[in-house]
Design a protein that fits this description.
- The complex is a heterodimer of chains A (242) and B (278).
- With 242 residues, chain A is α/β, with parallel strands linked by helices.
- Helix content of chain A is 36%, strand content 24%.
- In chain A, helix 2 crosses helix 3 and helix 2 runs parallel beside helix 4.
- In chain A, the strands form 2 sheets. In chain A, strands 6-7-8-3-9-10 form a 6-stranded mixed β-sheet, with helices on both faces. A 4-stranded antiparallel β-sheet of chain A has the order 2-1-4-5, with helices on one face.
- Chain A has a domain of 129 residues: Rossmann fold.
- The radius of gyration of chain A is 18 Å and the shape is globular.
- With 278 residues, chain B is mainly alpha-helical.
- Chain B has one domain: MetI-like fold (Orthogonal Bundle), CATH 1.10.3720.10.
- The radius of gyration of chain B is 23 Å and the shape is globular.
- The chains are: A alpha/beta (242), B mainly alpha (278).
- The interface between A and B is medium-sized, with 28 and 20 residues.
């Protein structure tokens, strides 16, 4: 049985003179522990798809199933990570990581310990008591990742999470995310417009067409990926994106 | 707590502003003294300050201050009590603005004094119409300010909270409100200034106490010195309350500390290629 299944999903927005089709009949499955990258041209509806999986938007047709059951609304099972500025600026790094735990009713001492351990694991332990504006973009994203991972979500939804950080930080964050994802067996649905990022991170790549988005290509990424092969794959995927 | 930390909690004295005030007071002092203006129409600054001091010392000013402060607090408090929850409710809903737009545009040009006749017809004379005028004079600004503050909250913060397990109510009280707090506090300060602006108009409504009453009564007896002393008292009270709110703002927004506020022309260092990002 598929872990996460997107079944015949369509989304249209009301607009004049006629509705805008964002997604058209998308079928996708994600396996448990799999890292799936969604690639597509800008404005093709990747983010809309992620929002629907998160339960923040309703589809016009079709459904999303998690472990065989249709999802209804939002839940901490499907945590969303954005490009930037998503940390609560009035809470410290630790306060941010504790946010979900607190809502879940975990006692203060336990959640503090867990939050500190998670921040440590992401290399931002020393900044636990710093406020977001005191942290660099890369460190903010690590805290955002810690805040999501500490809840052990069934699926981690990431919307171009490294698009706003500099190239060197991005490469490091990618390496660390990949490592975390494999050691923790975390299922990830990752939206990006960078072919290289998708090839580096994902177990499988899905290429969406321009609006209305349909699935144009589904391809597993062989591991380990030979650099020469990577270049070849990149060429090929770019053609599908055009 | 270190000395540095304590230092950041007190409001630095604005020497430039005080210097300008001192300069203006000097001009004010000289203009009637050298005979440029009749001292009956513009008594010298020191005479006005002296009057303010003697009114304070004799105790005759305090009932007026008390009455005005009470009206401001009551009228403004009631306006907040209405504007904050209603503004929050409207700010959270997309359609509400379309309902409310024409109404607010219609009410906006009505300055507080325009409500005086109606206030008297509805509430007679005394405290109630005065409080009503402060209420109507501030409630619309507070309402629109609250709606704006709520609407300006980054939707990613809310969506993030929801997918971290927050219910809609938890997202409103634990994310929308703290995120809107900086803008709400600024609005609170603006609104309080507005309430003080309304108080003189409000006290034109046949009350027998209050700084506005004092000023109008002094005008009737051609007592320019007391008119100006009363005006200065209103200015000082408004300033004092604003300083109090600024302290509150600092305390509540400590998480913003260190965030640089640049003027509209941006960070002057950026022009020299020394921007904070570099």
């Amino acid at each position: 049985m598929a872990y996460l299944e997107i079944r015949a999903l369509s989304k249209a927005y009301q607009a004049s003179p006629r509705p805008v089709e964002a997604l058209e009949h998308i079928n996708l499955t994600v396996h448990e522990g799999e890292f799936l990258a969604l690639l597509g041209p800008s404005g093709c509806g990747k983010t809309t798809l992620l929002q629907i999986v998160a339960g923040l938007e309703a589809p016009t047709a079709g459904q999303v199933l998690l472990r065989g059951r249709p999802v209804q609304g939002w839940s901490r099972e499907r945590t969303l990570i954005f490009q930037e500025y998503s940390l609560f600026p009035w809470l410290t790094a630790r306060g941010n990581v504790e946010f979900g735990l607190r809502l879940a009713g975990m006692p203060p001492a336990t959640r503090k310990e867990l939050a500190l351990a998670t921040l440590d694991r992401l290399g931002v332990g020393p900044f636990a008591e710093s406020y977001p504006h005191q942290l660099s973009g890369g460190m903010q994203q690590r805290v955002a990742l810690a805040r999501a991972l500490v809840l052990e979500p069934a699926v981690l939804l990431m919307d171009e999470p490294f698009a706003a950080v500099d190239a060197i930080t991005r490469r490091r964050l990618q390496d660390e995310l990949r490592q975390l994802q494999t050691t923790q067996v975390q299922t990830v649905l990752f939206v990006t417009h960078s072919v290289r990022e998708a090839l580096k991170l994902a177990d499988r790549i899905v290429v969406l067409s321009a609006r209305p988005a349909t699935v144009r290509l589904e391809m597993p990424v062989p591991r380990p990926l030979d650099p020469a092969d990577a270049a070849m794959w990149e060429e090929e995927i770019v053609q599908y994106l055009a | 707590m270190s000395a540095e930390r304590r230092g950041s909690n007190t409001i630095a004295i604005n020497w430039r502003g005080l210097l300008l005030l001192a300069g203006l007071a000097g001009i004010w002092e000289l203009v009637p003294r050298v005979g440029l203006v009749d001292a009956v129409l513009l008594p010298p600054f020191t005479q006005v300050i002296g009057r303010l001091g003697s009114l304070l010392l004799s105790g005759s000013l305090w009932p007026h201050i008390g009455a005005s402060v009470w009206r401001v607090l009551l009228g403004y408090g009631l306006a907040l009590l209405v504007a904050l929850p209603v503004g929050l409710y409207i700010g959270l809903r997309e359609q509400a603005e379309k309902w409310l737009g024409p109404l607010t545009q219609l009410l906006r040009p009505l300055a507080p004094p325009a409500w005086i006749p109606l206030a008297i017809l509805w509430f007679g004379i005394g405290n109630t119409p005065a409080v009503f005028i402060i209420f109507v004079g501030t409630v619309l600004t507070l309402l629109l300010g609250t709606i704006g503050a709520v609407r300006d909250v980054d939707k990613h913060l809310v969506q993030g909270a929801l997918t971290l397990g927050a219910t809609r109510t938890q997202a409103v009280f634990q994310v929308v409100l703290p995120a809107a707090l900086p803008e709400l506090l600024t609005m609170l300060r603006l609104g309080l200034g507005l309430a003080w602006m309304c108080v003189v108009a409000a006290e034109m409504v046949a009350v027998s106490r209050g700084l506005g009453f004092l000023i109008l009564e002094a005008r009737n007896t051609f007592n320019t010195t007391t008119v100006l002393a009363g005006m200065i008292a209103i200015g000082l009270l408004g300033l004092g309350m604003d300083v109090g709110l600024r302290q509150l703002q600092r305390r509540l927004l400590r998480w913003q500390a260190g965030r640089k506020a640049y003027g509209v022309l941006g960070d002057p260092r950026a022009e020299q290629g020394l921007s904070g990002l570099a």
